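Model: You mentioned two targets. I'll fold them one after the other.
Researcher: Yes, keep them separate.
Model: Target one:
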Amino acid sequence: MKKISLILLLHMVLGTLHAQQPPIMLNPVKDQKEMNGYSIRLKMAPGNTVLFDLLKDQHPVFNHSMNPVTMLPQGFASKADAYKVAEWMIGKYGAQGHFPPMLPPGVAKQLNVANSFPKPLPVN
């Protein structure tokens, strides 16, 4: 019985350690990118995730508090994924004359961001 209890405890501890992600650190100066006259500025979101704002001449043109793929407040699991989506949106603005409100699921798969979301936040 002691062996089983020890194995279960070890399994729970290892599962907990494996599930924790290191915190994403944003630097407001370094975590910006320029593309076609727009600035992509990363920002923190719930659940240690990242969202973005798009600015033109230092004025916000796309300031969204929801993930454009999931339409939830949780952002992307990595900075690179946030940049991919922001760059796609800037490209679509040039083609359509407006920013799309969300990213279609097929495009999310094409950009390889469809499975990059962290586990959903617990509901209180």
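Model: Target two:
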Amino acid sequence: MDPRRNFTNFFLGSLSKSLRNSWCRLNRLFFFALLLINLLGETSQRIFAQEPSELARVGILRFINNTQSENFGWVEQSLPDAIDLSMRARFEYVRLNHEQVQKAKDSVPPTEVIEGGLHRFSQNDAARIAQLSSADILIYGDFIADEANSEIVLRSVIFNAASGRVIGRVENRTPMNTRIFRNIDQMAAEIVSEIYRYALQENQNSARAKDNLKLLVLVPSYKTAKEERQAKEELEVLKRELSARTPGRYLTIFEFFNEYRVTLQEQTASLTYAKNRQKIRLQLWLEGYGVRDAMIVLVSENKVNITAIGTKKTAQVSYAISASPEEKAKQMEEVQEKMRGKMELVKSDGISDRRLTVLVGFGASRGILTAGNHLGLFTGANVHASYKLTRFWEPFVHIEGGYGLPFENVSYAFSGSILSGLSLTTFWGRFAVSPYLGTGLYAIQIHAKAGVFNVLLSSVGGGFSLFFMVTPAWGIALDGRTQYIFDLETPALFMGGSLATVLRF
């Protein structure tokens, strides 16, 4: 009988038994991976927290008049001024000198052709103007006349120079009458909203924003267990809503007590301050722990009352527990708008807004333990791809293929493996570290003096990559990894490293 067939039958039986015995172990390892990645993320955020960023330089171009009429020439200047006025109410930033921006604009003719043979600036034109004017964010656009509807169509584009990407577009149609003045202000507000969404995302990616602790203090007004449960559930709803809208680290008062190990005496005192609406005493107590923003939440008689207190401002809103999600969201936006100061519009490194990361590398690995000691050095290529879904949820797939050099009784070998799991990429400047852990399969074909052997086994592995981004889209990386091969009698552990090219999209 063919010995290779005997080996295959033996292997399939061993594999089935091995998989059954290791299934629970794989589950435990996977959940341990989640906890470890979370811990690594928090640690790296603290170690590599960036210094406060420099304010972004914003260039606002005169809008191109594509109406072919001088009657609307004033719009060219009115739009940039309206945009700047709206932005200054929401952001701290540096507006570039008008002459500096205009000089850069005049040296770059618009190349995008629109209907009627007219022109507007393309994205490549914007990149060139931003470079010449040293703008981090460039706002430009044009307007045309829709004679059939007696309307002016205003079109604006917001360009981020660091990433070379458009981060917002706004289009507005306005009648050719006095309403055009109001609509210009409305368009300016819409442009600011687009920039705010961009800035919010940037701040959520910064360690400073995540460490900005905001506390939700529940007033103990409940009298029954049901009322207490209802109040705490509403507190969790508020926590999720607020976290989604404004960057920061939100804790309920009870989570705060546990995390900061507040004594029972202080817990009672703080809740008493909240219950008696002693805002100053509560605020001073919170500042002793470094908390400068809090919301006092009273849930009673199916109604939620929220009083926000900060170092300089106080605001209050209320709504019914049965209110629609839209109404609750509106009230949350209102209280945050009252409390919100100006947001810093900071320079972007152009990296944080890219979610897909692909590494293509070449390297070597070496095995140890029972089976690994009988195999030589493997050289080959690997591809690692990850996609950032949220702060911590970054699934990855790692595929690797190798050629085993002659060693002892092995003439040569071919190996291949696939791992999938979770990774976490943390940037500080152009550098980044990305630990990853996952489970998968390992296959090897061994050409030895005794014959050819094919093996397929389950595995668990992980590693880390160190990046240096030369540009926001391209960089280099060093990758180190290890992979354990499950086999009851002949386990193996492979350790290796590679030099890789990094592409981010």
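Researcher: Noted. Anything on target two?
Model: The longest helix spans residues 3-47.
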